[in-house]
Amino acid sequence: MEAPSKRNLTHNQQRTENDPFYQRFFARIPIQTAVTFTPEQLEALKQAYRARASREHPVDLRLTVPFFPRGFYFVLLAGKEKRHQPRRLQEKKQHPLTKTGNILFLTILLLVLAVLSVGGAYLLEQPGTKLPSETPPTSTQEK
Q1: Could you give the CA distance from residue 20 to residue 2 in angstroms, rounded to a whole number?
Q2: Cβ neighbours of residue 63 under 8 Å, at least 6 residues apart?
Q3: Are 74 and 61 contacting, i.e. CB atoms less than 8 angstroms apart?
Q4: Is residue 14 domain-resident?
């Protein structure tokens, strides 16, 4: 029996090859599995992923920092917690805070914040340093 290939895809699946969602989806699964989806199943999958991807967060910061040959990205999402406790516990086990990368990042972040705080306090204590809210004395106040 011939192994499934791209030319064995159904007519509906061939039409999905121009859709970015389906391109990413089919790139992650074996071709033997891809050929088994019905048009209804494919549409249901797309709708399920669309609903998940369309969730809005009140805080959604995404930053890419170039770093020599490659870059790093940072994502900060914040909003109301909607996950149930079993899911939170499962994700806590899958993504522990005590990973080396997490500890290293938090340590560097705390060091940068500490340096900025100490530097700011030092600058404010320097003679002649004026806060933006301070107004210089006027000629009538000097008399």
Answers
A1: 28
A2: 73, 74, 75
A3: yes
A4: yes
* Angle formed at CA 63 by CA 59 and CA 68, multiple of 5 degrees: 165
Residue at 142 is within a domain? no
Q: Is residue 27 located within the same domain as residue 69? A: no
Whole-structure pTM value: 0.47
* 25-68: pLDDT as tens digits: 888 889 888 888 888 888 888 888 876 665 788 898 999 988 87
Q: What span, in angstroms and rounded, lies between the C-alpha atoms of 59 and 104?
A: 24
**Amino acid letter, residue 90:** Q
Tokens describing residue 119: 């530097």
Taking the C-alpha atoms of residue 62 and residue 73, their distance in angstroms, rounded to an integer, is: 7
- Domain region containing 75: 59-123
Instruction: Please report whether residue 138 resides in a domain.
Output: no
Question: Residue 132 gets which letter from DSSP?
Answer: T
